[in-house]
Fold these 4 entries.
Entry 1:
Amino acid sequence: MAIRQLSIFLENRKGRLAAITSILAGAKIDIAAISIADTAEFGIIRLIVDDVEKAESILKENNVLYRINDVTAVEVDGEPGGLAKVLSLIDNTSINVEYMYTLATQSNGKPVLILRFSEPGVARDTLRQGGVRLLDEKALGIG
């Protein structure tokens, strides 16, 4: 189960993040999760939104450089060791966790992690076999 994520590339300048979120807000696009990674000159904003197609259209209209990536959403036990359980399943493979961040909302009262793996299909199979609940866009109330 892949979740579509927007990765937006922009200059690391004052006001750029506000401009992007204003563009999306103006189109009534809800941001369910956001992660920002930056360097001195550029940043990558990773977003999970409620309407990827509409977001893609509005970003194109505004000449915003973006890419759509597939990521994995997993439900994590909201107690000490919940994250360790998920990551230990992956640690027993050759798969690399490229990055992760949390979703703003929960699923069944549990935290939700967004993960990008070097081998997503193998990672998803490994997590399923380990009893981890994977979530699709419908289960997250997006898409």
Note: The chain has a mean pLDDT of 92.
Entry 2:
Amino acid sequence: MAGEWLKIEHHVAEKPEVLQIATNCEMEPDLVVGRLVKVWAWASRNCPAGGRTHISAFAHLNTIGGHQRFAESMVEAGWLKIKDTDMTFVNFDRHISQSAKERALNAANKAKHRRPDDVPNMSRSNRDKKGTREEKNNKAVAYGNAPVLSL
């Protein structure tokens, strides 16, 4: 399915939030990134309401994260918010939601089509043989056909 992927930044392992979670949970940053991917994948499947779910899932995030303080560390890092009986993934709409995935795909497609290797090679014979705009303007001035400006 098209929706079964996540948008991950290249430098996620170096983010201060990841390093904070790694320190809190006594885990290597690369392991934290892997666990975060699992947590975010779970959120993608189970939090359709703008990244919100019931607080009862908090303990489950610890299981997915592989540490008893994983979800709490996400809260401390600012990637998870708890309010009353709701648990919300911060910036869900920007990174995990279906619309975020569609925006990322559109951006990737546009970037692909803008690559120089996609530009067709045009020889001089396929272009206007009368010269550049400057050359045409110079000829017009030389022959008295220059545009007249009135003030």
Note: Residues 42 and 101 are 15 Å apart (CA to CA).
Entry 3:
Amino acid sequence: MIFLDTSAIYALADVEDPNHERARDRFRVLLGAGEDFLTHNYVLLESIALVQNRLGLPSALRVAREAQRFDVEWVDEAMHDEAMERLARAGQRRVSLVDQVSFLVMRRRGVAAALAFDRDFVEEGFRLYEG
């Protein structure tokens, strides 16, 4: 199982994104290998909002439809509170609430790698899937 981050979802959606080709190629390889994708509803919200803002509603709706193929962890109040505590402890480090939730989800589900273009995953002890 591979964690799917907003940075990869957006790169897949935007053909002009500098990471589009890499994201597309890595996603295809993982699909071909029968790999499952894990994400959470905060990533989906962030991704859909970003795509809608930059690429328009039809593209955002396509992302929402495609996301039905993923294993989506739904953030409950306890996970949200724990991520908020981690965010507060992080202090000046520029790691978002969404990233904090991602790290919690990955640890809880035993996922070591992310399809992402965000180095914060590496700094948090995870591996970026590079193909």
Note: The CA atoms of residues 25 and 131 lie 8 Å apart.
Entry 4:
Amino acid sequence: MNKYILIAIITLIFSKAYTQDVAILDAYKDSIISYSTEMVNSNDDKRKVELSNKISHIVFYITEQEKSINYDLSDLRLVKVLTSEDKKFRIFTWVIPFTDRTYAYKGITQSYNQYKKEFVSFKLTDKADRLGFAQNKTLDIKKWYGAYYYKIIDTKRGSKKFYTLLGWRGISRTVQSKIIEVVTVKSKGNITFGYNIFDIRNYEYFGKGNRSSKRLIFKFSTQGNMYLNYDYQTIIISSKSKSKSSYKKKKNYKTGFNAQSGPDKAKVKTKSIKDNMIVMDRLVPTSPQMKEFYEFYYPESNIIDALLWQKSKWKYYSDIDARNKTDVKENSDKKIEYNLVPK
């Protein structure tokens, strides 16, 4: 048989097999959409849990399929799917909104095992309520600070890769939160949550001098809507030039004495940084007496802070220029899909 004909036959066989696989995955995706929609709209908590379990089984099936990391799941809405740029990590998260306005957080990860040259999948177990001061803890799949993630950012420090996740977590009837989480994947595909890559020494919300945060958790009122996303923005940095005070002797010819002029004024220099960065509303209490009572925290009007990836850290910048401030304001006013508070 002509080798070109053989290649064509083999290509056709694999093409048909791939088409069949995609058709199956499409059917499962439709099921996820149907189950998640019913889960959110149901008034029966037991039924919600049953539907969530069905979603979990289907997601696991999808992640175990060869090359499923390339399968497009962007049209899923209530089950959020985030895939890293390097296609080595993917995470599925969703929320069960119970009728008493409490929540359960579910997640499944898909990560690359470098030794076996294949992907492995893990189910996440939310233990946020038992973690105490979670901001400084390194966690794993069995102790996950559960959240609904809506953005993933790839970064590197040398050869080490970090996946920064932006997410939401409802805490109570009066308090919700936004989260900046950091994921690292080990050689065998094992997942670790939390890493100290934040330079937030001057971030007043977390306490000045904080050097040990492994994730950032912003708590605020359920009546507010904090903007937290990854945008292209401008940071204007002002600094005074270092100059030694110089005194020039001037002779007063009437008195015969030498006089000294005042010190030279320091020159103010400015420079701008234009780049992609994490930008967020500044959260403040309604009064100083309400500090750390997070149901009284709201976004400060027209003040945007930022975290810029510099020298392998997310470095905090206060009150950035935000040349795209109009877009930020428009987005912050929109109803967020992941705030699944029952009506």
Note: The first strand starts at residue 80 and ends at 83.
